[in-house]
Amino acid sequence: MPATHLIDRGVIRVSGEDASDFLQNLVTNDLGTVTQDQAGYGALLTPQGKIICDFLIVAVPEGEGGGFLLDTPLLQTAALMKRLKLYKLRAKVALDDLTEATAVIASTDGSQLPEDAGLVYADPRLPELGQRAMTDRHGAADLATAPAQAWHARRIALGIPDGGRDFAYGDAFPHEALLDQLGGVSFRKGCYIGQEIVSRMQHRGTARTRVVPIVFEGGIAAEAGAEAMAGGKPLGKVGSGVDGRALALLRLDRVADAMAAGEPLLGGGMPFTLAKPGFIHFPFPGEAGFGAAA
């Protein structure tokens, strides 16, 4: 059971009788789909539709106090708590930052974690990501023996973006970070913060910039932050990478133009190609149907 302690994750608890309605009115996904057996994935946005923080949402059993635990990026925990408190108003909700006492454990090979690992839940974004668990921080070392790089290598190989590495919080729209492809946005629920912008991008097909997996020739990925170029024109930036694979935030319309002109795609000066994973359903450059919907 290879697993790692994700030291770059925090945990926030949202409890109280209004917890479900409170989150439902704020976040991008539908809290109605989050149950004891199914975690959720979503985000809190600015009114302009930019991602403040994305997170996994885990239902807490009623016998353990009920409510929800948010598996969040550590560096965004304070910003998320601040926004949640701002929106709390008179809602009967308690907000607690449990990060100091709680560790997030993740399988590094897609396998199941032991039932006694803590609060165990399947990563809702993609079945191949396997299970995660929230557990007491003091016992995390006994469960997690694999390096964190093993988790990121698997994530990158599967094409799953990571906030702060592959897109910038406060600057990226949900479509750009693939939340629409990974079950992180509900287009059927009622209003939430930033919903109008997200719905417009969905229905007008105006998401031209996307995080997509890429493969470098030679088996060595460019450094994170390297410029992606073609024909001397910018395409975007390379994000996290390992073993010749990486994720990159690219303007796909510019990629399509470069491919049509026969210009090589370069990241940090090294040639790369796009590698479309099975969970992405929008057309890539060079595929039938590519255009405004990309």
TrEMBL record:
A biological-process GO annotation: iron-sulfur cluster assembly
Query: Which SUPFAM superfamilies does its entry note?
Result: Folate-binding domain
Q: Which residues form the GCVT N-terminal domain?
A: 11-106
Keywords for this protein? Transit peptide
Q: CAF17 C-terminal domain: which residues?
A: 208-279
**Could you tell me which Pfam families the record lists for this protein?**
Beta-barrel_CAF17_C (PF25455), GCV_T (PF01571)
The residues forming the signal peptide are: none
Q: Among its keywords, does the record have Transit peptide?
A: yes
Keyword 4Fe-4S on entry: no
What this protein is called in its record is Folate-binding protein
Q: Which source organism? A: Bosea vaviloviae
